[in-house]
Amino acid sequence: MIQAPSLPQRLRRHFERWLFRIDRPESGPIRLQQRRIFVLPSGAGLAFAGALLVMLLASINYNLSLGYALTFLLGGIGVTGIVHAFRNLLHLEIRAARCEPVFCGQPARFALHLENRRGTPRPALRLSTDAGSTLLDLPSEDAAEAQLSRPTTRRGWLPLGRVIIETRYPLGLIRAWSIVQPDLRCLVYPAPETSPPPLPIGGQAVHGKCPPAAGDDDFAGLREHQRGDSPRHVAWKALARGAPLLTKQFAGQAGNEIALDWHSLPHTLPPEARLARLAAWLLAAHAQGRTFSLRLGTHSLPRGSGSRHLHDGLRLLALHGLSDEG
Amino acid sequence: MKAEARRTALWLLGAAALTVAPHALHLPAWLSALCAALLAIRGIGLWHPRARLPRLAVLVLALTGAVAVKLHFGHFFGKDPGIALLAALLCLKLMEGDSARDVRAAVLLCFFLQLGLFFYNQTMGIALLALGGTLLATVALLSLHLVAAPPAMQLRTGALLLGQALPFMLVLFILFPRVQGPLWGLPADAYSAVSGLSDSMSPGTISQLSLSDAIAFRAEFAGEPPPAAQRYWRGPVLNDFDGRSWRARRPALAGEPAYTPSGPTLAYRLTLEAHNPRWLLALDYADRGLSGVRYASDFQLLAEQPVRSRSRFDLRSRPDSLVGRQESTATLTAALALPATGNPRARALAAELAAGTDSPRAVLERTVAHFRGGAYAYTLSPQLLAGDSVDGFLFDSREGFCEHFASAFVFLMRAAGVPARVVTGYQGGQINPVDGVLVVRQSDAHAWAEVWLPGEGWQRVDPTAAAVPQRIEAGLGDAIRAGDPRPLLMRPQFSWLVQFRHRWEAISNHWNQWVLGYNPDRQRELLAGLGLAQADWRTLGVMMSAAAALLFAALLGWAYRQHRRQDPLDRAWAAFCRKSASRGLPRQPWEGPLDYGRRLVHAFPGQAAELERIAQQYAQLRYRGPAGRSDVRALSERIRRLKLR
After folding, report:
1. Which of A284, B305, B391, B599 would suit a FRET pair with A53, their CA atoms being 20 to 30 Å apart?
2. Domain range spanning residue B34?
């Protein structure tokens, strides 16, 4: 369950929205400008400042000229640290890279692409969401990918949300940070039912063991290659003749067609449970190499097979009854 | 232990060792040994995890250490026990763990201890050591965040931070409104004993002092320095004799001298090392109208406050002044007082010297002649004299140091009925050929006599000079009998060392004057030199903030500059992409130049040829070998002229 945010949390969110002027995900690469980088002393920095104050008082009290010098040198180091921390974030580019769909319950893994166009490295960058954080060093003139994961509790779109990118480089006395909201969301499929009834072959639930898919002997034709197709089915000969990458289709795969339909499920089953069962069946059908179609109220998926088809089906399930915006 | 954590631990260990090592000079020996052992265990423990102290042992050590410090010093409050506790704490902290928090705490302790070093010593060498310790401690902090970098890189980055902090340090050091401390009462041990004259003298006190090469003060003369034989720097005047020791009386103080200064003036600047009492060491006799000083009735010059730090005084002296012509009876009576008994042979000699004349001057001349012809030897290690020390010196051992001569002479004068007293101070000094500053060391400490003659006042008489003229003319080194112990640098075979020392001391003098002696007065002087005669703390604060803000802006500029160093070809292409983006067609991150060009051509068919050429040229320059500078310039010019319609 998601709890309603408490008042301080809400206030804080409002404040940050005003401060950072982010109210929706930012599309395109985000380049951290001076306006959105914030710098404040960390807890260690405050302790350091307190120590310097004590040292200054001691120097005054005992008239220690070199004491003044040491205190001021350390103060200078602290001030220099502000600029170093700021510089460590300045003009850093962040881009939404990708996010693979996951089943509900699995952590969603968001990949952010960080790019450093500068000739000096950017060490000790920490990216964090409210669910976790990751630490990375970015070498000079290089790019790196940061992985952020969030737990998933509901199907549908899960936006990455606000990401705090912060650094305590160089001495840990200063924290420089910025808040970004890259336009990256994760499609969360419904969690498949753990022990679903067997696949309904031909529209009917089949009891007993599923017959195995037919062999590879009945060549039915060629279709465009899709990611996930078995390399054994690639039309290598055609490829050698200069044709694009094609996949051989066999009659056997079309043999046991499955039509999955929302409405054919028992009406007593709650909607989420139905989605879970359909998800489990889609997975089972795909695992067995069957062709399947899916009807889901107004949306439907024509017959097909292959992993792309599977994901189209799961996507329909994930977004069922939700707006596409997430 | 992971390599990164070990690296941090090593930097920290280095910082701690560099910080604690110089403290060994004044820490109790057992504590120095404990610290060394702990640091060694820590070093070994980095490679052999078994060689670590268990937590309980650390705790027990900490508690015993605290108790031992209490037992050793007798109290906890004060700088000595404080520093001892901090040193123990730092070494124990290193045993505790490797977490970032532990490292930070240890680094703060290092900084405190580096400050603590300056309580004892503020020379350039110590400053360098502290700077090294600061660098290592900074690198230790840095290595927590610069984990993957090789050590050389960590050190370089630390040095960069320190280098960028130096201008801030200079600005703050010069402009921070200085306050003359102390702000509150200092603990009793704030000023540890320093060598120097004291307000009493017994056989052996000055000869002990004479073995020390430490600088007592420096004097910088406005004109030509007076010859060595006239350089008598007056310290405490000792009047009361108890048969063995001479003691000073508390003189009356006034804002003006008790005499009329006359004759030529010598102006000089005295830079006195900290010696704790109030007296200054002025050349006889101080002129009137000096600021920041008080005049004592025995012609000493005193500072307003005890001289607890190296201090500078601008003084003048009028050596030819006649002093004490109208001396009070009380003073003269005191200058005749002797113990009722003791030293019978000396009293007999005095009676002999005074026989047949009632002129004090004649008595004086006879006594001086006695010293001149008495075959007395000058030595730093005279025989110990028990009982009647004056008799023992005059008739038996016949060897002694200036205090023996002065003491015996004054005794004889008093016994003969002539008011006399002992004056201690310094005599001579050496001119540093490098900067022309006269340097007076503890080894120049001296004692002489002052005799009151009716109508003439107090007259300086140096019985040592009478017996051993070389002492005054050529200095101590030549006056001592060959084979006697003498200060190292007064040995002839070390003349090259003397040369080196002259140079070093000239530099040290600048360091003392401008770095260590930089106080509220010096700050005002400097600002007055800059045309800010009446700079109060507010002006200083504004100036300091402005200067710091400028430095900060310069640093920010440095932070930005790093980004502008872009390839001109990249810059040109970025300008092209910006132009197109402003027309609603930004380049997608995955789009190559040719693809992008094609898309733009679709959108702006009217400029197809130009767009295509730009995309193609860029692709060629970018991907086909090194780009010629003129080609790049031509392309960027083309892009600059492009107007998308």
Report:
1. B305
2. 3-144
- Our measurement of the distance from residue A176's CA atom to the centroid of its chain's CA atoms, rounded to an integer in Å, reads 24
Task: Order the strands of the A299-304 sheet from edge to edge.
Answer: A257-261, A291-296, A299-304
- Cβ pair B119:A137 closer than 8 A: no
- For A247, the 3-state DSSP assignment is strand
Does residue B282 belong to any structural domain of this protein?
A: yes
Rounded CA separation A276/A285 (Å): 14
B86 and B114 co-located in one domain: yes
- B-interface mutation test, from A66, A68, A135, A166, most B Cβ less than 10 A away: A66
Q: Are residues B115 and B214 in the same domain?
A: no
Confidence of residue A216 (pLDDT cuts 50, 70, 90): very low
In a shared domain, residues B10 and B137 = yes
In a domain, B154, yes or no: no
- Interface contact flag, B122 A73, Cβ < 8 Å: no
How far is residue B200's CA from residue B205's CA, in Å, rounded to a whole number?
A: 9
Q: Which residue has the tokens 């110590």?
A: B126
Chain A residue nearest residue B560, CA to CA? A87
Residue B163 lies in a domain: no
Indicate yes or no: CB of A91 within 8 angstroms of CB of B563. Answer: yes
Cβ contact (<8 Å) for B559 and A86?
yes
B10 with B104, same domain: the answer is: yes
Closest by CA position to B532, among listed B540, B521, B544, B522: B540
Q: What is the pTM of this model?
A: 0.73
Contacts of A57 in chain B (CB under 8 A): 183
Size of interface A-B (CB pairs under 8 A): 167
Helix (H) or strand (E) holding A68: helix A65-89
CA distance B561 to chain A (A): 10
Which residues of B belong to the active site?
Answer: 402, 446, 462
Instruction: Confirm or reject contact between A73 and chain B (CB < 8 A).
Output: yes
Q: Do A170 and B161 touch (CB under 8 A)?
A: yes
Whether B30 and B107 share a structural domain: yes
Question: Which residue type occupies B342?
Answer: G
Shortest CA distance from B101: residue in chain A = A44
**Pair B216, B293 in one domain:** yes
> What CATH number has the domain bearing residue B337?
3.10.620.30
Per-residue pLDDT tens digits for B494-546: 777 778 878 888 888 888 878 887 888 788 888 888 887 777 888 888 989 99
- Looking at the structure of chain B, the number of domains it has is 4
Identify the residue whose tokens are 């060694």: B40
